[in-house]
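Suppose a classmate hands you a notebook page containing two proteins, each written out with its sequence and a corresponding row of structure tokens. How would you begin to make sense of it? This section walks through that situation. The first entry is reproduced here exactly as it would appear on such a page.
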Amino acid sequence: MKYIEGGEPFVLGEGGAGILTFHGFTGSPYEVRALGELLHQSGFGVYGAPLAGHATDVAELEKTTAEDYLLAGERAFDEASRRFERVYIVGLSVGGTVGLHLAVHKPVAGIVTISTPVFLYPMMNATLPLIEQWLPGLRAPANFAAWQGNVVGYKSTTIGAVNVILDVLARVRKELEEVTAPLLVVHSARDLTVPVDSAREIYNRASSKDKRLELIGAGSHLMTIGPNLQLIDSFIVEFLKRLESNACPEGR
């Protein structure tokens, strides 16, 4: 499979504790590469996997179904499990939504969600299906960071592809009470893409005994690159290192 230059999947290290990272909608593994390198420097192996239909050609995204997203996530977890003894998940935006699904269906050692939706702003929920009904095939800008050259991803896609995400969110929202893995929810209060109430919904409904909510007063939706990463990296590293220390205490 041919990937967009700069947006390829990546692997850092083998064996031991590993982290499966997922990027956001219309993005690519580039969005989580800097965070992946930081986690690798902190002692973890990292597998940066693409979401279904991503990092190749936007035509692939536009024929991707909700089932494709979830099955591709499960396959990525299985691949990570072949590389690492334990697998943690760190997911940005829709990547975190897929991660929550995996936390229900796979032996996830712990999960971090960043700017993750289980619902969108009400106006988007109401208007997207209508737009697709009346203007099928309409394309819209989808990734302003890609337009600006800050990330590698698709610059536009169809409304239909966005509607598929609503289906993914609905499926995962129904599963939230089944999430029991240790959970860290990170979200910027200034996120204009995903409402901060989505973070509260994840935190409140997950059944994890070990869970933490970090609401950041600065930043934006894309928290994994540039200065925004510095606002959250310490929370993520601290959380994962604590889990790993408990999973494999010294001298065990």
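The notebook's second entry, a different protein, reads as follows.
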Amino acid sequence: MKPLEGKRLLITGGTGSLGQVLVRRLMAGEMGDVAKIMVFSRDEAKQHAMRMEYQHRLAVTDEVIYRNFQQKLEFRIGDVRDPDSVASALRSADVVFNAAALKQVPTCEYFPHQAVLTNIIGPENIMRAIESHDLPVETVVGISTDKACKPVNVMGMTKAIQERVFIQGNMRCRNTRIVCVRYGNVLASRGSVIPLFHEQIRGGGPVTITTPEMTRFLLSLDDAVDTIFAAVAEGRPGETYVPRAPSALVMNIATALINGRDIETKVTGIRPGEKVNEILVSEEEAPRTTERDRWYVIAPLLPELRAEAVVASCIDREYSSGDNLVSLADTVRLLKKHRLMLEDVEGERAETLR
């Protein structure tokens, strides 16, 4: 039987870029025929747009399938910052995916307390609700970021503490398995660099680069969901799943997207809180890291949570986006594979408008 067969799922921040892909693939039955998917977020406009998208998608299908879809997909207004709305939503959930986050690096630098409320207090509210009300939640997946590894910015610092809140939560919520996933910049997610480059190219430039040396891991939204599914299927309490992903110079990403057009690139300087290279596994975590299929798996820091000793780690140093960079040609191939070249994006937009 598939891992989520018959389960009731709650996705906090489910209207975001990742949440929407996660919902689509869960509804497709990849992890089993789920009983319910609850999208929990505070933005009613995004919820309405997402609801209408599914209704439009199913308008030409059989009425029975349409009603079945509506029964499965439910939208709940709420905020992870509000413990009461969290506890209410969790009462109906077997599995929780915490995708709610403040994730824009400069925003978190200028409003650090707001980042604390969403990225730390939100996860604590989930743990406290399960613990205090003895809720029968089976699994919680905390969704983190490479910026949580050796953090230098508020976003990364709050996400690093989020990881620790969830991992230690295994000791508080004994009947709930809590795992984390950590991955790099997701290609084409809302607010990421590729949509920005597309807009700058459409406007005739310039395309802005913070520094020519900057590197980032290249991961699609589907790759991110694959990591989440792997953690659900095989993760042990307190483990953190990290994808093995290619990385590239951001300058090469810009060059690939410009694709020979007469458009200038402009170096603007690093923004507040940015790193030149991102890190997915630190040198401190390397001795606790093993390989499992396509992923690195970091054993929990707390010895009480380790199912077994790490006999032999698979890496002997930090895992950085500055290592093993792909070439410009390979960067182009990756972007084409994921249909992220501007020509592909414009083509999809034209199809959608027909």
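A careful reader of the second entry would note: Confidence is low (pLDDT under 50) at residues 60-66, 349-354.
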